[in-house]
Design goal:
8-stranded mixed sheet, disordered N terminus
Length: 668
């Protein structure tokens, strides 16, 4: 099965059922350890990236199943990697130190072994070798991760480093993923995986390029096996899968409006789906209902949702009434958790501690806090269910397949008054029924018997801002007015969060610094600051003291797009906005006494061909008054690479147009 998942191509297939013919054979490097000759140092630049500070001459990984490593499962997965890098200038010297990491899988010890490496330099036409020794390898541990750090000796501009290692994963459950792209160009990247047909794996392949090699080869093998109650030997078919890419360009730096580069890196990932042996068969998360059942039984996810949790009773009695499932009651419960519990910033779908500890310490990760919220709702009689999703920084989930690694965030769906609300209690600035923009990243999954999917695409979120400005001549011969702005939902969240760290006076002082000398700010304040469910507004009054012969007056205050967010001449990834936009700006101003209009900008409209982006700049005047309005609409959030030039020009036109002032001249 093959499917398209924007913005990158991703497909999931069973490793045991895929066959792709071998493409015409491209150039392939020799991969013999230490086979570095003077010719290796010859090129001065490489086609994959002529300006690169280093280049991977090749990066080769293999996975095999080996029963010779003793463990209770009878098999170990052996992952081997051989990499050769050429340092071209001083900016690539950071590659002289690398880290090899291995994450413990459950209670099984993972081994890093047979680490080899050397540095090669060309001196007087001869290759000089400096080998690694034990003093160049440093062992470290970070939680469940073992790390071998390698510091290559004698590395300088022009050096070649060559290294290889082996990692033993005791069990058949985990095949490491492989990324074909990184921060430097790769002349050849290849991954080989050999699996006995005892095992099925889902394979997720992501990226924009077609592989130079994408093939499956079949052979037979003989293994001693010890698992599933069977002890003996197995003869059968093995499947040898090969992926390879030639001249892989480096992963580009993140540009504005890129959700995450994780969505675009060329890679393959694996998840065990089934084991079959002598009539024994076990499936692993092959369907969402199975995964849902597993999650709901897991003590770190749904295991305590329906517990009585009597440790909550005394505190809940202070603001809840048993059996009251009204909207007002739901909002009280949500506000209690949001305001009393502190978020650690960790985004995961599993609790880091038991629910009682979260309750007592009043802090935790996103799962600790939001699963606690769901448990309180259920305890009080509400229909409440956990929902898992992937945040924008984590990458787009492939929601049709139960790949749990695609998800890193938990929110709560609660039903009251016949309406479903999605809640996230980790941020004090978010209101009831509001999710931060990071949650709008594709399909979310309700974890209950229904297994419903919820479309939380960026296109389903819309941000609307309204700004009103009024300026007039007063009876005392002065000129004054008011500015009022109502933020959209997400801007309100951002500003409320800012005001938790900054005094309101400091906020308005920052606005005042950007004003012209002849403008003064007076009474100012915020509207609905303490009510997160409502859009946040701010306002101020102003006075002007015009004395100049010529006034250059820009009618757009604070809302102007001063610089285009899209400046690169070309782009290789789509533009991914976090939400749709509809911003209004309206100004009505009297012509200042003693002045006349010398120059008035012309009205204009810009739009893309498909009307997915629209900008209006409308202005007119009579003898006494100027009426001005702008509107920016972005009606979709994902603009493919083919539309980038038009969108870049669209923003450039806005920047130029919004610079234009109204010019007043004093009447002689």
């Amino acid at each position: 099965m093959r499917m398209t998942i924007p913005p990158a191509i991703a497909c999931c297939v069973s490793l045991c059922f895929l066959f792709s013919p071998l493409n015409a054979q491209p150039w392939q490097p020799e991969r013999i350890f230490g086979d570095v000759t003077p010719g290796t140092f010859a090129p001065t630049a490489y086609d994959a990236d002529s300006s690169a500070s280093a280049v991977y001459l090749f990066d080769h990984g293999t996975v095999s199943f080996d029963p010779s490593y003793n463990n209770s499962h009878g098999f170990s997965i052996v992952y081997e990697r051989h990499t050769r890098i050429r340092i071209l200038n001083k900016n690539g010297l950071g590659l002289a130190t690398i880290g090899i990491s291995a994450t413990h899988r459950g209670n099984y010890e993972v081994l890093i072994e047979d680490v080899r490496g050397a540095t090669y330099n060309l001196e007087d036409g001869k290759v000089v070798i400096t080998k690694l020794d034990k003093s160049n390898i440093f062992k470290d541990k970070n939680g469940y991760v073992d790390i071998d750090k390698i510091a290559f000796p004698n590395v300088r501009e022009g050096s070649v480093i060559d290294y290889s290692y082996r990692i033993i994963y005791p069990s058949y459950a985990f095949i490491p993923e492989w990324e074909f792209q990184g921060n430097y160009p790769v002349l050849w990247s290849e991954y080989e995986v050999t699996v006995p047909v005892l095992f099925d794996y889902f394979v997720k392949s992501q990226g924009y390029r077609n592989f130079n090699i994408d093939t499956t080869l079949y052979s037979t093998d003989h293994f001693p096996v010890y698992f599933a109650g069977f002890s003996g030997s197995w003869d059968g078919q093995t499947i040898h899968r090969i992926w390879a890419l030639q001249d892989v360009a480096p992963l580009e730096k993140k540009e504005p409006y890129t959700t995450t580069l994780r969505n675009h890196v060329q890679k393959v990932q694996f998840q065990l789906s089934a084991v079959r042996m002598n009539g024994y068969q076990k499936t692993y998360r092959t369907t969402w209902p199975e995964l849902t059942t597993e999650l709901l039984k897991n003590p770190n996810f749904g295991g305590s949702l329906d517990d009585r949790n009597h440790f909550m009773d005394d505190e809940l009695k202070k603001f809840t009434t048993k059996g009251d499932t009204s909207l007002a009651a739901a909002m009280k419960i949500f506000s209690f958790v949001r305001d009393q519990f502190s978020f650690s910033g960790q985004e995961v779908i599993y609790q880091s501690q038991d629910m009682k500890k979260t309750w007592e310490e009043k802090k935790g990760n996103v799962a600790d806090i939001n699963l606690l919220l769901a448990a309180i709702f259920r305890k009080e009689g509400f229909d409440a269910t956990p929902v898992i999703l992937s945040t924008r920084a984590h990458g787009t989930p492939l929601y049709l397949f139960p790949l749990l690694g695609d998800y890193n965030y938990v929110v709560v769906r609660v039903r009251t008054g016949g309406v479903n609300y999605l809640l996230d209690a980790t941020r004090p600035s978010d209101g009831f029924g509001q999710l931060p923009d990071l949650c709008y990243n594709g399909m979310a999954r309700v974890i209950d018997a229904g297994g419903e999917t919820l479309p939380l695409f960026a296109d389903s979120a819309k941000e609307s801002r309204i700004t009103m400005v009024s300026l007039d001549n007063d009876d005392a011969g002065g000129y004054s007015g008011t500015y009022s702005r109502i933020e959209g939902v997400f801007e309100s969240m951002t500003l409320r969060n800012r005001l938790r760290k900054e005094k309101p006076e400091d906020f308005f002082e920052s606005l005042r610094k950007g004003m012209a000398e002849y403008k003064q700010m007076k009474d100012y304040g915020f509207d609905s600051l303490a009510t997160p469910e409502r859009p946040l507004g701010f306002h101020y009054s102003m006075t002007y003291h015009f004395t100049q012969q010529t006034i250059y007056f820009n009618p757009i205050m604070h809302d102007r797009i001063s610089n285009s967010p899209l400046t690169s001449p070309e782009r290789h990834y789509p533009v991914e906005m976090p939400y749709r936009v509809d911003n209004h700006y309206v100004l009505r101003m009297a012509i200042p006494k003693g002045y006349k209009i010398d120059q008035l900008p012309k009205s204009a409209r810009f739009s893309l061909a498909d009307s997915s982006a629209l900008f209006e700049y409308l202005i007119d005047a009579d003898e006494n008054t100027i009426n001005f309005r702008t509107r920016l609409q972005l009606n979709k959030t994902n603009y493919p690479v083919s539309e980038y030039p038009g969108l870049r020009d669209f923003f450039s036109l806005i920047v130029q147009k919004e610079k234009e002032p109204i010019v007043f001249k004093k009447i002689q």
